[in-house]
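Example record

One chain of 362 residues, shown exactly as stored in the release files.
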Amino acid sequence: MAHRNEKVAVGLSGGVDSSVAAYMLKQMGYDVAGVTMEIYDGPMEIKGPKRHSCYGPGEKEDVDAAASICNMLDIPFHVIDLRKEYRKHVIDYVRREYLAGRTPNPCIVCNQKVKFGFLIQKARESGFDFDLFATGHYARIEKSAGRYLLKRACDLSKDQSYFLYSLTPERLSHTLFPLGAHTKEETRAIAHSIRLKTADRPESQDFIASGDYSPLFNKEELKAGEIVDEEGNIIGRHQGIIHYTVGQRRGLGISADRPLYVLKIDAQNNTVVVGDRIGLLSRGLIATDLNLIAIDNLDRPHNVAVKIRLQHKAARAMVFPHEDNKARILFDEPQMSVAPGQSAVLYSKDTVIGGGVIEQAI
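Predicted structure tokens for this chain:
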């Protein structure tokens, strides 16, 4: 089926997935152009190995790779400067959350505000006209009874629907995910078959190039403090609460006669509370800032499966309406490491019902 009248802007990262997405859409007959966002506003000292990342000094390499892909595919290429927007909506958000003792998810906010927001808006404002926006995410979009639904990828091991729950049905109606029905192996095979330079490029796993977020903070914000047990006894020192997340066991820098885990981060008192693994179990959570895709509103309880982080195996639960734009989620069986600041995403089989930000464990 040809799509010659439809113009598609493909968000290119310089990696294999978005490159193959652009190639596939062109093969389908779409009028394709590539668009890449500039977000790094360094300088920023990055310690340790400089792995490929979303935000860091390696951005020029990514932009050059995207330009090279567009040149090879013979499609137009646009670079959009989103440094101010990224600083305000992602970097400042990450800083605020960590300093409040929470664990943010920059990918979710970047998708909602920047990639599927300002990138599209500013590309159009620059005179770049297109009908649809596409990315190399592993997820699917289906239309059912007039509503656009977000679904898990066919390759569940690569599924990225968790990161995309904040997209609205209206946004989904103008979005394409060409890789949703493919495995990563198939994507790489396509890349090899057309001799894409990105075919064997390592995946971008980190938000910050070294995986160390401390360069985002100044010395005054990285205040040392006490590590305490549940009774308040001091058992160690920490070098800043930003280095800790609920459920963490490694790197605590304390010796004990049993494994200890981070149970809570008390930003007000600048303390990290640790304890036994059983203290990580929660029977539920309160989620806020809900975005619902498959239903109009949460006006009654629903049986759902809930993911509380990307690598979490979705747990059976009941979700209940709770105050303004909040939900109360009760698990069938208690779950480990419910971290405030992360997102709880609700599924019905392979359909994303919606999700929200974890406000507190209960």
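Notes: The longest strand covers residues 281-292.
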